[in-house]
UniProtKB/TrEMBL annotation:
This is Acetyltransferase (GNAT) family protein. Keywords: Acyltransferase, Transferase. Residues 16-191 form the N-acetyltransferase domain. GO terms for molecular function: acyltransferase activity, transferring groups other than amino-acyl groups. Pfam families: Acetyltransf_1. Coiled coil: none annotated. InterPro entries: Acyl_CoA_acyltransferase, Bact_Acetyltransf, GNAT_dom. Gene3D superfamilies: 3.40.630.30. The lineage of its organism: Bacteria, Bacillati, Actinomycetota, Actinomycetes, Geodermatophilales.
Length: 195
């Protein structure tokens, strides 16, 4: 184990790894987002979002997220297979609903997005990204993780369920400009081994 690694509990293979995103990763992150949205979320996202994709604007947004995150608790991780950027995860403190009390377990980190380019799916990249987010969140003092998933996205729900996550009872509806998008919130508690 490399003592300087930001993910001491993560162990990857020589061909697959996860690391913090670097400024030069922004174009690759935008590419993975575009391809994954078109391939896996074409029936969920509004057509206008997909039809008017602006690669330059998306790259600029991801560059800002990597170089100048809104808080120190925000971050972006990338999954690599060899030298290829094949997935990413963005995370940070959640926006808190005024009607919601703090979770009794302690602070929460939200997985804003976790995407693996479909050609690279089923190789463990999503699991490695999720484990690295959990390690990073735990190291920063979080006791819980959460993510919002489109209600009809059974593939992502199955992935999070297989990792020990469950819906926590919160639902929201987003105005997409076309049909409303209903999302369900999933969560898990972070525990060290042996707890």
């Amino acid at each position: 184990m490399d003592p300087t690694s930001p993910f001491p509990r993560f162990s990857g293979t020589a061909d697959a790894s996860v690391r913090r995103a670097r400024p030069g990763d922004a174009l690759g992150i935008a590419w993975v987002q575009q391809v994954t949205w078109r391939t896996a979320y074409g029936s969920v996202l509004p057509a206008e979002v997909l039809d008017h994709w602006d690669e330059e604007a998306a790259t600029a947004r991801w560059s800002t997220a990597v170089v100048a995150p809104p808080t120190p608790a925000h971050g972006v991780l990338v999954a690599l297979e060899g030298d290829a950027l094949v997935g990413f995860a963005a995370f940070g403190p959640p926006e808190v609903d005024p009607d919601e009390r703090s979770h009794p377990a302690g602070p929460t980190t939200e997985v804003a997005t976790l995407l693996v380019e479909p050609r690279w799916g089923r190789r463990g990249h999503g699991s490695r990204l999720l484990a690295a987010v959990a390690d990073t969140a735990r190291d920063s003092g979080a006791a819980r993780l959460q993510v919002w998933l489109p209600e009809q996205d059974r593939v992502s729900a199955g992935f999070f369920e297989s990792a020990g996550w469950a819906p926590d009872g919160w639902v929201r509806t987003l105005d997409t400009g076309e049909a409303p998008l209903r999302e369900v919130r999933w969560h898990t508690l972070l525990q060290e081994e042996g707890e």
